[in-house]
Design goal:
Distance between the termini: 38 Å
Number of strands: 9
Bound molecules: inosinic acid
Strand content: 25-35%
Helix content: 10-25%
Shape: globular
Order of helices and strands: EHEHEEEHEEEE
Amino acid sequence: MSKERKPGSPKARPGLRSNESLRVLISDARIKKRLKQLASEIRRDFPTETLHLVSVLKGSVFFLTDLARELGGEVSFDFLSVSSYGKGTDSTGEVKLIKDLDVSIEGRSVIVVEDILDTGLTLKYLLRLFEEKKPKHLRVVVLLDKLERRIAEVHADYTGFVIPNEFVVGYGLDYDERYRNLPDVCVLQLGSHGKTKPE
Ligand code: IMP
């Protein structure tokens, strides 16, 4: 049984501004429980392999570190950084590599660890990039999937939660670099009209 935080405590609402409100969508207790299930699904498929966890900075950092501890066995990490342009439905969805991986993924069992699948354009770009480098296995785990927003034809092999089309923060996800340290995944609402999609 997890300890409930009092609503309004600083830990529950880090950096909350006056025109913003948060609604818990997925509590940290549910996240932890689901991570154990995801880790055992992955280990069932790769019981003895060294798993090379590759993650996009910065939103997936807590997900990667928590998942890695649940996976057990031999695990290594690497990180890359991308920036995305014009992710609206009418865009080309250009993604640019800002920081490449430190080590080669050739011959490795790679698990791409993503915080959230939205249009899928970032993941499509990454998978194309990684496939060229000839990993032994290439799988994708995502914590959150906004299925209804998908533009690119991509899917995750392991999915934590399918969520509605709302802007979420917490557990690594940010709004303008804030809220990453929120323990729960929350819907961010702006202003008094319950608008949930920051521009
Ligand atoms: P995609 O290329 O549209 O799938 O975008 C994926 C990236 O967009 C994620 O890795 C996040 O950085 C960002 N993103 C998408 N939806 C949200 C959200 O609701 N909150 C915070 N970041 C988001």
